[in-house]
Amino acid sequence: MIRVLVVDDQELIRDGLSLILSAQEDMEVVGEATDGVDAVTMARTLEPDVVLMDVRMPNIDGITATRRIVRDRPDCRILVLTTFEADDAVLAALRAGASGFLLKDAPRRSLIAAVRAVAEGEVLLDADVVRRLVPDEASFPTSESLAFEGLTPRETDVLLAVARGLSNAEIAAELGVGSATVKTHVARLLEKLDARDRVQLVVLAHTGGLVPRD
Prior knowledge:
- The protein is an alpha/beta fold.
- The chain is built from ten helices and five strands.
- It has helices at residues 11-22, 36-46, 62-72, 87-96, 108-119, 127-133, 153-163, 168-175, 179-192, 198-207; strands at residues 2-7, 27-33, 50-54, 77-82, 100-103.
- A five-stranded parallel β-sheet has the order 2-1-3-4-5, sandwiched between helices.
- The chain is globular.
């Protein structure tokens, strides 16, 4: 059972998220917090597996709360809920230790899949948000300059899927392989592209020209 703590200063959003997640057989909403102070306290006492974290809240914001929760409970996964207007906060939250981020208007199925993915230890990224994180004036070199030509065709397929924000389970289903195989490919991509984490893989794919711009 995945224990979830919902954190948002808007009651309607908290109620909606809790209703969706509580309806899942493998999830239990153990609490709802209205700000970062409550989030940190409840994370300590309720010991959730996943925290759905809003960014902009009174008293203590979601970034500070994320940092404190990760410090106190490194095994707790933080999934940041954001809007298109909070790009700078997204990067700060990831640096604070968040396991990923998702748009607040994402479909219900994406929310459910995201909670399951981060609970399993994956880093989850929404490709639409990542695309906005890349500066418009950034130089987009050819893929050869980032050594994408050193990737196998399957590794390239996996990188493109990661850049689209798919989880390992979704990539496995799309490519018709096992999740363990996808994890192996991701590990090799991190090594070959000298990337620290999945976040850097997505940014490299977009800034390196592997993913065409709209």
